[in-house]
Amino acid sequence: MNIREFLEQREEMGLSQYAAKSSQSRGREYPASSCEMRTEYQRDRDRIIHSKSFRRLQFKTQVFVSPEGDHYRTRLTHTLEVAQVARTLSRSLNLNEDLTESIALGHDLGHTPFGHIGERTINRLVGGGFRHNEQSLRMVEVIEGNQGLNLTWEVRDGIVNHSGERQAATMEGRIVGKADRIAYINHDIDDAIRAGIIKSEDLPLQSLKVLGQTHGERIAAMIKDIVVNSVNKSEVLSSDSFQEATDDLRKFLFENVYQDKWRSDEEKKCDFIITELFGYFMLNPAEMPLEFVTIVYRDGTERAVTDYIASMTDRFAMRLFHQLFVPNSFSVI
Question: Which CATH superfamily groups domain 3-264?
Answer without folding.
Answer: Hypothetical protein af1432 (1.10.3210.10)
